[in-house]
Specification:
Helix content is 36%, strand content 15%. With 138 residues, the protein is of the alpha+beta class. The chain has one domain. α1 runs parallel beside α2 and α2 crosses α3.
Amino acid sequence: MVVRGVGDHGVVRKGAGLGPVRERASDAALGAGTANAVLFARSARALQDAARASGLTVPAFRSPPRRRDCDRTIRRLRGGAIVAVRIHGRSAAAVQRDMVDGVLVANELRGSAADRLRGQLLTALGAAVPDAATPRAA
């Protein structure tokens, strides 16, 4: 899998500068199994709360992206950004990584600031969405 960077027209395109994703020790905090709508919704709420607490612009999340050839896209609007992430057929960790990277790209963060906030956002996901890949019993 390749992390996608921001390309022309605010669309996230393959290979636009962020390089390949490597498995990280922090991935253990991410959801296990296959992604689903419950994981996506819980992850979006947790990331929005963590972004707001860090003083970042809080993007909206939606699924799926309008472009069928992308796993994640970003649309920039006057009031913020919309991060769209493909859920179907993807692992929970991959979806959550794309959501975190979407927050960072929407806020135009790079380098050490992005690395620091990526860690904070992943920690927030691990705390708020421990078993989101498995629906709760009613």
